[in-house]
């Protein structure tokens, strides 16, 4: 009974009789050296958690950026291959211009040099070629360069060819990112 009266009296005066008080003089959980050690360990844990979360976030961002670059290179290679194989003698000049606009460097110069021959041949033969299927895959990609393989199936016809048959093309393309655009810088046929 005396303990209960003493506690009640302490509560009236504003004094704490709780043994788990945070007041260091009371011997609570943050008292003395043990309390300071707990605070330091907690601070280190929070900092380590923040550093780990930042590192993981940066890793995810880098992986996403690399995947976006690879997807952009694949799409550019796919479109260039479709442009190369899609020929219609009625508008072949525009088709050749689309191909050239997706290229850079020596390959662009080669296509520009051969453009007249391509236009003349397609017009003379009244050739048309329609893409049926396209598949592409990135072989490698880093920063501003990539290698992509593209497979295209197209049906080519002309007045001389009575029964159009599918043709299969496989291209190996090196691409470079120039002013934010992926452009083909090297082109080869894959056997």
UniProtKB/TrEMBL annotation:
Keywords: Membrane, Transmembrane, Transmembrane helix
Entry's transmembrane regions: 37-61
Subcellular localization: Membrane
Record region (Disordered): 8-29
Keyword Transmembrane helix (UniProt): yes
Main localization category: membrane
PANTHER family membership: OUTER MEMBRANE PROTEIN RV1973 (PTHR37042)
Descriptive protein name: Nuclear transport factor 2 family protein
Species: Actinomadura alba
């Amino acid at each position: 009974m005396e303990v209960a009266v003493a506690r009640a009296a302490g509560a009236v005066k504003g004094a704490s009789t709780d043994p788990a008080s945070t007041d260091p003089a009371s011997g609570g959980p943050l008292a003395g050296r043990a309390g300071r050690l707990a605070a330091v360990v907690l601070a280190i844990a929070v900092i380590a958690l923040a550093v780990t979360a930042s590192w993981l976030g940066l890793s995810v961002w880098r992986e996403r950026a690399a995947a976006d670059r690879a997807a952009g290179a694949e799409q550019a290679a796919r479109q260039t291959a479709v442009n190369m194989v899609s020929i219609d003698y009625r508008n072949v000049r525009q088709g050749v211009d689309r191909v050239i606009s997706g290229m850079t460097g020596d390959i662009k110069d080669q296509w520009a040099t051969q453009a007249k021959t391509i236009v003349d041949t397609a017009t003379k033969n009244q050739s048309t070629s329609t893409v049926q299927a396209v598949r592409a895959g990135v072989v490698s990609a880093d920063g501003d360069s990539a290698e992509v393989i593209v497979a295209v199936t197209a049906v080519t016809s002309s007045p001389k060819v009575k029964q159009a048959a599918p043709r299969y093309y496989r291209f190996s393309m090196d691409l470079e990112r120039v002013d934010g655009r992926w452009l083909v810088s090297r082109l080869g046929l894959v056997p």
